[in-house]
Amino acid sequence: MHIEDSMRLDFKDVLIRPKRSTLTSRSEVDITREFHFPHSPEPYHSIPIIAANMDTTGTFEMARALAKHQISTALNKHYQPDELESFYTKEKFDAPIFYSLGIGDDEFNQLVELQKKTDNAIKFLCLDVANGYTETFVAFVSKVRQTFPFAVIMAGNVVTGDMTEELILAGADIVKVGIGPGSVCTTRKMTGVGYPQLSAIIECADAAHGLGGRICADGGCTTPGDIAKAFGAGADFVMLGGLLAGHEESGGETIEVNGKVFKRFYGMSSKRAMDQYAGGVAAYRAAEGKEVLIESRGSVEHTVQDILGGIRSACTYVGARQLRELTKRTTFIRVSQQLNEIFGKS
Ligand code: 5GP
Predict the structure, then answer these.
(1) What pLDDT is attached to residue 286?
(2) Predicted local distance difference test score (pLDDT) of residue 220
(3) HSE of 112 in the Cβ direction (CA atoms, 13 Å)?
(4) Using CA atoms, how far apart are residues 158 and 263, in angstroms rounded to an integer?
(5) pLDDT value of position 281
(6) Are 320 and 329 in contact (CB under 8 A)?
(7) Predicted pLDDT at 239
(8) What is the C-alpha separation between 148 and 131, in angstroms, rounded?
(9) d(CA 261, CA 248)
């Protein structure tokens, strides 16, 4: 038995050390980024935050609201082809919208049909499986790369440098990183498998950047500060589920309990999602996601302002005039306590 002894860290284990800076105001900070990719010729120029492709956050309404702020969305996999066709052909956005698919033949065929009907309007793809370590997945990434050489392909999820490299060599432009950190994920509990997210980001970013690829840190951000830490650790993109859930633009049933309005939020591998889309939890597997009720948070506009304001301020504290400089200017310090919770957790 071999145990890797060096400590792997999560967002809560570190803080970003402030640095001398010539910046006078956070309004001077540019948090858009321009990326060029190893395979696709399509550039990305927006704020590199992406709403997760969960059916509670990856909605058309969320995409419209976030794109106004130049934030991207990965659509959930459960829209009908005619809805998607109309969305991609009739609407224009100020941020790329990712189309999500798993490795099923039917999902691949649906994408081929949609590309034909929309004259290849779908330029950003999110190939998404819970476990990105299988040979089948690597082969699928290659197949999608060969079929759509123009598309930006984001693929995952993985948490180690070796597999990040393998996915990029197979055709991915962006590797999605995170196993187990999600707010409604129970993978670590059910399987004992996972990797602390901050270390996963540092290790995978190093591997991806060596090959000219990019990474998207997916899951585990509970505050705007965590997003800043993810960027500081080397993430090119950050994907958010829980932080964007519970808003008017989020999907999921609204329910009233004792006069208070709540929204359902659930993992895409939860029993609720499987009941809804797969006719229940198959006999050979267990749910690896849970369901929570979130008190309704109103429009996502306010949350967006908090998130963007937090990131701009983080850049100001370390003297990064552009988000691109944040990683270079970040020094993490290990801490045993990061928040003062005397008045609760909010
Ligand atoms: P959050 O921002 O809520 O912490 O994390 C969002 C991410 O959690 C998603 O982008 C996705 O990768 C992951 N996720 C969503 N649903 C499930 C689930 O049911 N099980 C697991 N293991 N992960 C999930």
Answers:
(1) 87
(2) 98
(3) 11
(4) 30
(5) 85
(6) yes
(7) 98
(8) 23
(9) 11
- Omega of the bond prior to 109 within 30 degrees of 0, cis? no
* Catalytic status, residue 136: no
The residue ranges of the chain whose pLDDT is under 50 are none
**Structure tokens of 174?**
């962006």
DSSP E strand stretches across 173-317? 174-177, 214-218, 237-240, 254-257, 260-266, 291-295
Give residue ranges with CB within 6 A of ligand 1: 52, 54, 130, 157, 178, 182-185, 187, 218-221, 239-243, 267-270, 288-289
C-beta separation of 176 from 157 below 8 A: yes
Instruction: Fill in the DSSP letter of residue 322.
Output: B
Mutation test residue for ligand 1: of 53, 184, 188, the one with most atoms within 8 Å of CB: 184
Tokens standing for residue 111: 């994408």
Residue 264 Cα, ligand 1 centroid: separation in angstroms?
Answer: 15
C-alpha dihedral, 255 to 99 to 199 to 161, nearest 10°: 150
Query: Two tokens at 5?
Result: 């002894």
What is the 8-class DSSP label of residue 79?
S
Q: Which two three-digit tokens encode residue 197?
A: 């997210």
Provide the pLDDT for residue 345.
Answer: 77
CA distances from 160 to 125, 166, 175, 309, 329 (A): 22, 10, 11, 31, 24
